[in-house]
Amino acid sequence: MTMFNVIAADSGGWQAGWSMIEALATALGVVATLIVAVFALFPEWTRGRIYRAKAQLRCGNQGFFFQAAHGLNQSPLYAVRLQVLNIGNALATYVECHLLGIAVESQNNWVSLAGFVPMRLRMTHTQNTASEYLARETALLVDLGTLAGDQGQFATGLRPTLYLKTEVQIPSSILPPGHYQLDVTVTSKERVLWKGSLDLSFTTTWAPPSSQQQFAAAADFQIANTRYTEGIGTN
Q: Model pTM?
């Protein structure tokens, strides 16, 4: 093989490689054009796939989740709250916290609480069932209910009862001592932010709040997240 043949062979291989590069660049250009077209035609849809709010639900027996308070009649009670924290990268608007179902443990089985219908919970310190917005890395508090002594004609005030802060008060929103599973969903105008269950239990005896005892002992009242399913965006 002469030197001219070697140069011709190298030139042919270089041209073939350059052709492959050109074809790859053309394909990438087509893909980029399609992506730009999708963003231009469906701006809200594409933005919702990149920027989205996402919630974390927190609760517990300490801090502002659970603390002593007093009702209008000055009877001692504990305020039981949930915290909704926006851990996503976008603003959430019109945020609501829904209590979708309650099950009570009975003879080692979970039984749906008779008479309960899905309802929204109220925001802390207001009568509102929705918050207009929740910015990223900020939180809001939701009232789950108040833990107080039993009330009524034959009540002693010594039997703890959880009065749920639902938008409508019905008999099934008053929970006697027991072990419960609460199905909760947090939504916004844009999407489902959080969906899961809370495990809640309290005993038949308790120590009413006082200046010396601001928080109930874990043996008297327990609440924790037990199951979490991330919401699927709706746009």
A: 0.73
